[in-house]
Specification:
The chain is α+β, with helices and mostly antiparallel strands and about 100 residues long. The chain has 4 helices and 7 strands; from the N terminus they run E-H-H-E-E-E-E-E-H-E-H. The radius of gyration is 14 Å and the shape is globular. The termini are far apart. The model has no long low-confidence stretch (mean pLDDT about 90).
Length: about 100
Protein backbone atom coordinates (compact mmCIF):
# COMPACT_ATOMS: atom_id res chain seq x y z
CA UNK A 1 0.00 0.00 0.00
CA UNK A 2 2.95 2.30 0.60
CA UNK A 3 4.00 2.09 -3.05
CA UNK A 4 0.59 3.18 -4.37
CA UNK A 5 0.47 6.83 -5.45
CA UNK A 6 -1.40 9.00 -2.97
CA UNK A 7 -2.07 12.70 -2.51
CA UNK A 8 -3.62 14.87 0.18
CA UNK A 9 -7.42 15.05 0.05
CA UNK A 10 -7.60 18.85 -0.15
CA UNK A 11 -5.11 18.94 -3.03
CA UNK A 12 -6.91 16.18 -4.94
CA UNK A 13 -10.32 17.86 -4.53
CA UNK A 14 -8.87 21.08 -5.97
CA UNK A 15 -6.99 19.40 -8.85
CA UNK A 16 -10.09 17.33 -9.76
CA UNK A 17 -12.07 20.61 -9.98
CA UNK A 18 -14.58 19.50 -7.34
CA UNK A 19 -13.82 22.71 -5.45
CA UNK A 20 -12.71 26.04 -6.87
CA UNK A 21 -9.64 26.24 -4.66
CA UNK A 22 -7.63 24.24 -2.17
CA UNK A 23 -8.71 26.55 0.65
CA UNK A 24 -12.39 25.86 -0.16
CA UNK A 25 -11.67 22.13 -0.08
CA UNK A 26 -9.89 22.50 3.28
CA UNK A 27 -12.83 24.47 4.69
CA UNK A 28 -15.36 21.86 3.50
CA UNK A 29 -13.28 19.14 5.15
CA UNK A 30 -12.99 21.11 8.38
CA UNK A 31 -16.77 21.61 8.47
CA UNK A 32 -17.38 17.86 8.02
CA UNK A 33 -18.82 18.15 4.52
CA UNK A 34 -16.45 15.60 3.01
CA UNK A 35 -16.24 11.87 3.79
CA UNK A 36 -13.70 9.35 2.52
CA UNK A 37 -14.72 5.68 2.61
CA UNK A 38 -17.32 6.49 5.27
CA UNK A 39 -14.91 8.37 7.56
CA UNK A 40 -14.64 12.10 8.07
CA UNK A 41 -12.33 13.54 5.45
CA UNK A 42 -9.58 15.60 6.99
CA UNK A 43 -7.56 17.80 4.60
CA UNK A 44 -4.27 15.97 5.27
CA UNK A 45 -5.74 12.48 4.67
CA UNK A 46 -4.11 10.66 1.77
CA UNK A 47 -6.41 9.43 -1.00
CA UNK A 48 -5.62 6.64 -3.43
CA UNK A 49 -7.30 5.11 -6.46
CA UNK A 50 -10.40 3.21 -5.37
CA UNK A 51 -11.35 5.54 -2.51
CA UNK A 52 -14.96 6.76 -2.40
CA UNK A 53 -15.49 10.41 -1.53
CA UNK A 54 -18.85 11.87 -0.50
CA UNK A 55 -19.33 15.64 -0.66
CA UNK A 56 -22.25 17.42 0.98
CA UNK A 57 -24.22 19.63 -1.39
CA UNK A 58 -26.76 22.35 -0.58
CA UNK A 59 -30.23 21.05 0.19
CA UNK A 60 -29.03 18.00 2.10
CA UNK A 61 -27.88 16.13 -1.02
CA UNK A 62 -24.60 14.24 -1.37
CA UNK A 63 -22.30 13.79 -4.36
CA UNK A 64 -20.34 10.55 -4.43
CA UNK A 65 -17.23 10.13 -6.55
CA UNK A 66 -14.75 7.28 -6.83
CA UNK A 67 -11.07 8.14 -7.23
CA UNK A 68 -9.62 6.53 -10.37
CA UNK A 69 -6.59 8.76 -10.90
CA UNK A 70 -4.12 10.70 -8.79
CA UNK A 71 -2.68 14.11 -9.65
CA UNK A 72 -1.05 16.68 -7.39
CA UNK A 73 -0.66 19.45 -9.96
CA UNK A 74 -3.33 21.32 -11.87
CA UNK A 75 -4.36 19.76 -15.16
CA UNK A 76 -6.87 20.76 -17.80
CA UNK A 77 -10.52 20.44 -16.85
CA UNK A 78 -10.98 17.59 -19.36
CA UNK A 79 -8.19 15.58 -17.73
CA UNK A 80 -9.46 16.50 -14.26
CA UNK A 81 -12.81 14.85 -15.07
CA UNK A 82 -10.96 11.62 -15.77
CA UNK A 83 -9.58 11.50 -12.21
CA UNK A 84 -12.91 10.29 -10.81
CA UNK A 85 -16.10 8.42 -11.60
CA UNK A 86 -19.24 10.27 -10.59
CA UNK A 87 -21.96 8.22 -8.89
CA UNK A 88 -25.00 10.53 -9.02
CA UNK A 89 -27.58 10.24 -6.24
CA UNK A 90 -31.02 8.91 -7.15
CA UNK A 91 -33.48 11.67 -8.08
CA UNK A 92 -35.73 13.05 -5.37
CA UNK A 93 -39.53 12.76 -5.57
CA UNK A 94 -39.74 16.42 -6.62
CA UNK A 95 -37.27 15.87 -9.45
CA UNK A 96 -39.19 12.81 -10.66
CA UNK A 97 -42.43 14.78 -10.55
CA UNK A 98 -40.98 17.54 -12.73
Amino acid sequence: MADEPAVRLDIWLDVACLFASRSQAQRACALGRVEVNGDRGKPHRLVRAGDRIRISLPGGRWRTVEVVGIADRHVTRAIARELYLDHPPPPTAEEIEL
